[in-house]
Amino acid sequence: MTSPPLRVGVLASGRGSNLQSILDACARPDFPARVVVVISDRERAAALDRARAAGIEALWLNPKDFEDREAFDRALVSELEARAVGLVCQAGFMRILSLAYVRAFAGRALNIHPSLLPAFPGLHAQRQALAHGVKVSGATVHFVEEGVDSGPIVLQAAVPVEPDDTEDTLAARILVQEHRIYPEAIRLFAEDRLKIDGRRVTVTGEAQR
Ligand code: GRF
Question: What spacing in Å lies between the alpha carbon of 12 and ligand 1's midpoint?
């Protein structure tokens, strides 16, 4: 008997190209996950339009409606739990999340970052990479824990940094890889093939569910 698809919630603040890659993957009949809700802290996030276009619930949580960060995060957790989400995917979600969220979804929340972590965490990763003069950069999917862009690494993909790169050209090259490895990481999670041991994530060979 095959298991029902994993229920995924996506958090996004902006244009939502990673969300789109996840939606496209989930639309394939053999993909073991489905997006059940997209939540944004920005009313006009293109990500919410992408969700609606795909017939998926799009929810705006206005940070101004909450007293502080903890209250926002508690609401976020309860919206996700109300939809029985088994995995949360942060895809360009521009808020730092507090312990209330991190604890609720420990081992069940992923983030994507446009650098080869632990290099260049935080904002403007591509600008940081160019300023540092690295010859290779890339994308990282990692589990979420307390620190910013820290947490055990699930998948990475490298791209060359070309001498004439701008922030935009490097970002575009990295984005191609983001759109490939995020759905792949979700698939591995959904198939219960990711084993976390301290900082290390092992991908096991066979689907467990
Ligand atoms: C991506 O580069 C992602 O790695 C970073 O924010 C950007 C979001 O882009 N966390 P999009 O909204 O998915 O197009």
Answer: 8
91 lines ligand 1 (CB under 6 A): yes
Note if the pTM is more than 0.85.
yes
99 Cβ contact partners less than 8 Å away, ≥ 6 residues apart: 146
Band of residue 188 on the pLDDT scale cut at 50, 70, 90? very high
Bridge partners (DSSP) listed for residue 7:
34
Structural tokens at position 138: 């890339």
Q: What are 57-78's pLDDT values in tens digits?
A: 999 999 999 999 999 999 999 9
Residue pointed to by tokens 């998948």: 155
> Is the CB of residue 16 below 6 angstroms from any atom belonging to ligand 1?
yes
Strand-strand pairing, 136-143 and 87-90: unpaired
Q: Closest ligand 1 atom to the C-alpha of 113?
A: 4
Q: How far is CA 2 from CA 76, 121, 122, 185, 194, in A?
A: 30, 38, 39, 20, 19
